[in-house]
Amino acid sequence: MRILGIDYGTKRIGIALSDDTLSFAFPKTVFKNKKDIISGIKKIVEENDVSEIVIGQSLNLKGGNNPLMENIRTFSDALGKEIGIPIHFEPEYFTSVEARKSNPKEGMIDASAAALILQRFLDKRKERG
Which one of 9, 43, 45, 88 has the fewest CB atoms closer than 10 angstroms to its CB? Predict the structure, then answer.
């Protein structure tokens, strides 16, 4: 079983996957944010034995939701109805900036940001035991 991480954006959606031990997150792919996005994510879920999804929660510096969060919730609800596995939110701050520094491949920045979100989630889960 694996966990899928998502960095949601209005233009692109980054996808990351954990390893089988739920220890490490790896960038997977980037989708354009189009109407058929959920079917693309569903295919990855099915092909990779994904049991849970983590979506980056877009917060401002005071910890409140950014305007993008409304779109993320709508997306999350539609994804949950279609895929039917647990969906979690992980607060994200500056993951795209951090991803740009660590991954010079322009086309994979959003997937790298998704991996950062997923890795934080995995690390917190390990800490809790």
Answer: 43
The residue type at 111: A
| Residue among 104, 128, 103 nearest 115 (CA) | 103
Question: Any idea which residue has 């409304």 for tokens?
Answer: 70
β-strands 50-58, 87-92: how paired? Answer: parallel
CB 15 within 8 A of CB 31: yes
Could you tell me the strand order of the sheet in which 12-18 lies? 25-32, 12-18, 2-8, 50-58, 87-92
| DSSP codes, 39-65 | HHHHHHHHHTTEEEEEEEEEB-TTSPB
Reply yes or no on whether the pLDDT at 39 is more than 90: yes
CA distance 101 to 76: 28
Do residues 22 and 122 lie in contact, with contact meaning Cβ atoms separated by under 8 Å?
yes
Q: What is the pLDDT of residues 72-91, one digit of tens each?
A: 999 999 999 999 999 999 98
State how far the Cα of 89 lies from the Cα of 120, in Å rounded to an integer: 11
Residue-level length of the chain: 129
- The domains found in the chain, sorted by start residue, are 2-128 (3.30.420.140)
